[in-house]
Amino acid sequence: MKQFLFLLAVCLTLPASAQPIDRAAVVARHQVRNTGLNPESALTVGNGDFAVTVDVTGLQSLERIYYDNGLPLETRNTWSWHSFPNPENLRFEDTLAPVPFHGRQILYPIHQNTPAGRYYRENPQPMPLGQFQFTLHGEVLRSEDIAGINQTLDLWNGIVTSRLTVRGQPLEVTTAAHGSAAVLAVQARSPLIASGELQVRVRFPYAYRTAVAHKPPFIWEQPERHRSSLTQVAPGHARIAREADGTRYDTELRWSTPAELVSASTPQLAAPHDYRLRATSGDTIAFTAAFADAEHPAPNETVASTLASSKQAWANYWTKGGMVDLGAATDPRAKEIERRTIQSLYLMRVNYAGSFPPAETGLQHLSWFGKHNSEVYVFHAAQFYQWGHVDLLEKGLAWYLGQLPKGIAQAKSEGFDGVRWPKMSGLDGRPTPGGINPYIIWNQPNPIYLAELVYRAKPTKETLARYGDLVAESAKFLASFAHRDPATGVYHLGPPLKNVSESTSVELVRNPTFEVAFWYWGLQVAQQWRQRLGLAPEPKWADVIKHLAPLPQQDGRYLEIEGIRDLFGPGKRGAPSSMLLALGYLPATPKIDIETARRTFHAVHAQRGDDGGWVSWQMGQGALTAARLGEPERAVAILGKTAAAARFMPSGYSRRPRDPEGAVAYLPTNAAYLMAMGLMAGGWDGAPKGLTPGFPKDGAWNVRAEGLLPLP
């Protein structure tokens, strides 16, 4: 603890001669500006539990262009979920099949491609909320109608300002999300509004077309399957009640300028889910749209109060957390690395600072049916700790506390002690059927990791009391899952397993390097929690720690999986990298040999080459390992990659290389990037002395950092 407090003091205290970082100036350097129509530069505003993505009109007018060519335009929250009807009464039990596990059978939901498997894989899924568009003469605005685009996302305030011309007439739009509530604020001004030619369209889709797993489109063509009802209409206010297959929510519209809301339905045109907000006088429409249900009442917000809330929330985020300033660095890669960092900080609060950890594309668009993928969540959450936002880490971790009883019951049903966390689940915490999901295990120690980060920031009795059961039950499962060979006394992991890369048959995966290292570290930390709570060490945990299988090696380098040999050699390309997480994401432990880890990193790096082999979330992964090995130049080289597959789009999102047209906003990339930058700038236990220990000391990297917390 003394070492941690010393490192914390180093990170938080600047030399007497130094001035605090001008945070507003650093953030302003990377505000997003659009001067043309670029579907890869859609802009998202939000607060972690609610988000809206808009196009160059400041609304969602050009839906199809953006969906087809870049980032979808969606309105989402974390708590509105929908399930399609189940007329065949399909049962979750029908997805289960017995799987041999060391002399016994475990029921896993592996029947993915059966009717029940498909139904419970797709359901529930998040509910798409209302869409907001401009119409011109009653028709949705088209790309050929607009010109003179000058749009800015002010990252410091979370506000989008869009200036353009429509058929030669000026239009200025301000768009923002409330700092904490599910409220959108829009203010639009144009002579076309005064003439009545330009109006705001509000319409509602039925659901997502979930037959498309990643980036599913909306279902517009089944109006009879859902209801939109004007349940309250008053001057300046209207409530639209929404219902689809048992999902209910309200859209509360409030406007402060002279206007009226009318239904687009006519005797000739049946459009029961389509409304128009039109000015009755003046050239401005200013309105808020709040989304509410029985547990989330709609606050009475105006445009002014919503804008003020956005400004206050973002000011708190930027000023109270960590910050880095690479403005004085002379290395040509520094500007892009800083841009990726600042924009990623923005996107992580927008997409992951909520009460339910969403899928890997966050709230920007649907993927994996919107379900929480718990294995990569640790990257999304750990960076909140590093960058001084432990409260946001705890907000998501609270979901785990709520799911603890279900996870304990799940472990018991499978014959294990402790808690088994679902790999992929919706808000309800139910496991999702799949051929991979039940076999993933590197999600199981994650709550221990995250609880330990909270304790490092808040080493109090209250922290121990709040997360003690979470840590203990997770550790019980780790010890119970490890299988002891009675002949040797060695504890093994698997088979059957799927390791991080998910590329090897479950029957062949035994003792994967990272998972074994994570088991060792997680049980060690759990023992430390027992000591902090005044409890004696748990004998079973101690036995597993002592006799856990060694990390598999060949020719002085770590293998990804025991028995899967010959990863490296002449002519081989694209070596796996998950074994590097054992020293990078994880700290050094007695389980790992530093020089073997170094040889492994060099072999992976050489085999991937300098042509963009480090892409997606592996950029952060590789940089974490390089920094911990004391090779900062390689760390910045990885973070500065500019190959096509390593590209960050103008608004900070990054496509998933394996699915660039599906997962177009792949946020594990941003999260792992921030984790690496946080480590390089904020340090880690045992890091070299001095500030920013993960950056080269060659004179070209004059990096300033403040407010960062070191990793273990």
What are the defining features of this structure?
alpha+beta; signal; Glycoside hydrolase; 29 strands; 17 helices; 9-stranded antiparallel beta sheet; 6-hairpin_glycosidase_sf; 6hp_glycosidase-like_sf; 712 residues
Description:
It is built from 17 helices and 29 strands. 31% of the residues lie in helices and 20% in strands. Helix 8 packs parallel to helix 17 and helix 9 (390-413) packs parallel to helix 11. The model is unreliable at 1-17 (pLDDT under 50). It is an alpha+beta fold and 712 residues long. It has a 9-stranded antiparallel sheet with strand order 1-11-12-13-14-21-18-17-16. A 5-stranded antiparallel sheet has the order 10-9-15-20-19. It starts with a helix and ends in a 6-residue tail after the last strand.
